[in-house]
Amino acid sequence: MTDDRSATGMISMAERNGTEAGVPRWQQEIRRAAETGIYKIRGGGAGRRSLFDDLLFLGASISRYPLEGYRESCGTAVTLGTRFASRPIELEIPITIAGMSFGALSGPAKEALGRGASAAGTSTTTGDGGMTPEERIHSSQLVYQLLPSRYGMNPDDLRKADAVEIVVGQGAKPGGGGMLLGQKISDRVAEMRTLPTGIDQRSACRHPDWTGPDDMEIKIMELREITGWEKPIFVKVGATRPYYDVALAVKAGADVVVIDGMEGGTAATQEVFIEHVGIPTLACIRPAVQALEDLGVHREIQLVVSGGVRNGADVAKILALGADAVSIGTAALIALGDNHPKWDSEYRNLGSSAGRYEDWHEGRDPAGITTQDPDLAARLDPIEGGRRVRNLLKVMTLEAQTIARACGHNQLHNLEPEDLCATSVEAAAMARVPLAGTDWIPGQDRS
Q1: Element holding 346 (H helix, E strand)
Q2: Fewer CB near the last or first residue (10 Å), C or N of the chain?
Q3: pTM more than 0.90
Q4: Strand 201-202 to strand 233-238: parallel, antiparallel, or no bridges (unpaired)?
């Protein structure tokens, strides 16, 4: 490890995870902090076990009539932005690609995500730093993110987009700003963001032109006027106080609310954020739905949930709990080939290894996905990458359809909490479904 890496907080994978057998990680971290005097920066999401695994579906038997998977259809289409926008987004599947910036990701990676999403009939999202031409050309439905940094923001790109997403917070770091370290700020990234090349960049943790929901209402009106009231306006929040945040977003005029749980990944931030700030994705869904129901706008205003979605079962569970769609980020990068075993020797040269996802801020990704190095980025074929993303989206959709049919539903959005039970008290309480084998929902009055 060189001195300049130490100065920027870029610690090798071995140092980050500790290599001393039998020594608790917290002790290793104390020693690392004492030796370096810097906090730990990493990418990826929270390392906690997914609580979605504690939910099970109650397939049909006598009391329910299952559908035959090879003969009976199961609808997947969803429309986002039906409240005020004259041109809502119509998607063939309820799985979208979350915002990941050009800067954090390479140009070919952004193009591949657009290609894959388009082939699957869904949308992708710009992320911080603006819109690239390749991304716009290859994305049939593109959501433009408006972040506190305002990097790369201009009215022309707002008009080119199919929807605008105001990012208030991210699940990996609610209340905290973004980070993009200098080795990823190439000449092109610097030009798009109006930044000096090669210098660490930190995005603001809050928007500069509002201090509360009343100001956000004004901003939403400005965006509607800029885009001729055509584009749906999304509001994205990191999961902390989902009931109140969703209610305020609705009252400010949002067409769609996106809520991102703490399992959601990030390119780089302090580990203390990733592991200790926010609440799990499962815990935020029912309060968010409750807010929409209490305001009488559930399904009129769509709810999109993200953060640690890995497979079609996760999709089906989130939809059953009341969401309209989900977003994936890390899963899409893995589909592209990031951290693939074929690059293991090169990952090990970085102090990492295949299968780890904490090194996305390093800027030397051998797979050409989370890098701005032109030679490394050239390794990623955006056409092949798009095919792989499309395949993942297809499989996740088929898995969710299989579950819905088994529960007797001919539309994914007909899944409901009654189709679920939980195998742990924690999951039962968060999802507000019965503990398996009982009629007990923890936290609810049984009188």
Answers
A1: helix 344-349
A2: C
A3: yes
A4: unpaired
